[in-house]
């Protein structure tokens, strides 16, 4: 089910919408620099599109936007309850590789609330988070349903695509610098420090490139 966002005036959405729709070359360059996109790869963004009132997608609708519905062997319902993550952006490369993206304009956004799922749904979520954690860091015992739950559940969906279904997906955390309206970080180094902290708390390796997880950066001043 898509969610209608319309054009916003604050935060990461205010920056991501023009990046996708009006300055895609800037966004493509950031993804290439991060390693998420190859030098010869092109990319087509399938959300959030201005022509569709900047709708964002989740669950089966997101699978359709990513072009992977025909490649799914493990049904999403077996991995995650309904009303899962709403992706800030979705894309497909010219090699039919799906890209899922989460955007942030300031560090406090990364400290999300824990899961508020019902007991039955929470049991399913915890099982999927545990499977993801065991894949990334077999010795870790860190809880994943607390402060950095949003970051963790994005990693879990990358695990769902890449490991359970064998889809060569990429997960991109796009961080904006100099988002003055949000009093965001002015340097990439600040974002890198926040990411190191998140990974330490979750008990996972600092570098997840081998798992198809990348961190990209765009200076918000280039989008005004």
Précis, in short:
With 224 residues, the chain is of the alpha/beta class. It has seven helices and five strands; from the N terminus they run ααβααββααβαβ.
Q: Roughly how many Å apart are the termini?
A: 31 Å
Mean pLDDT: 93
Which structural class do the helices and strands define? alpha/beta
Roughly how many Å is the radius of gyration?
16 Å
The neighbouring-strand order within the major sheet is: 1-2-3-4-5
Q: Helical residue percent?
A: 25-40%
Residue ranges: pLDDT <50 for 5 or more in a row? none
Give the DSSP E fraction (strand runs of 2 or more residues): 5-15%
- Secondary-structure element pattern, one letter each: HHEHHEEHHEHE
Task: Explain what you see.
- The structure is a single chain.
- By secondary structure, this protein is an alpha/beta fold.
- 37% of the residues lie in helices and 14% in strands.
- It has seven helices and five strands; from the N terminus they run H-H-E-H-H-E-E-H-H-E-H-E.
- Strands 1-2-3-4-5 form a five-stranded mixed sheet, sandwiched between helices.
- Helix 1 crosses helix 2.
- The two termini are 31 Å apart.
- The mean pLDDT is 93.
């Amino acid at each position: 089910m898509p969610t209608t966002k319309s054009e916003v005036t604050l935060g990461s959405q205010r920056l991501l919408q023009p990046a996708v729709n009006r300055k895609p070359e800037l966004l493509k360059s950031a993804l290439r620099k991060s390693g998420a996109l190859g030098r010869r790869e092109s990319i087509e963004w399938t959300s959030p599109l201005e022509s569709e009132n900047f709708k964002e997608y989740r669950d089966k609708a997101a699978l359709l936007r990513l072009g992977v519905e025909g490649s799914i062997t493990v049904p999403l319902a077996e991995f995650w309850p309904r009303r899962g993550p709403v992706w800030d952006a979705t894309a497909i490369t010219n090699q039919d590789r799906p890209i899922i993206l989460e955007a942030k304009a300031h560090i406090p956004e990364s400290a999300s609330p824990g899961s508020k799922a019902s007991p039955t749904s929470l049991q399913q979520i915890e099982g999927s988070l545990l499977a993801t954690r065991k894949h990334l860091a077999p010795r870790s015992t860190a809880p994943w349903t607390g402060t950095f739950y949003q970051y963790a559940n994005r990693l879990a969906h990358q695990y769902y695509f890449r490991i359970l279904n064998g889809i060569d997906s990429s997960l991109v955390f796009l961080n904006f610098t100099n988002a003055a309206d949000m009093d965001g970080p002015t340097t990439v180094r600040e974002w890198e420090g926040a990411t190191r902290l998140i990974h330490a708390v979750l008990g996972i390796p600092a570098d997840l490139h081998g798992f198809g997880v990348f961190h990209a950066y765009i200076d918000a001043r280039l989008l005004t």
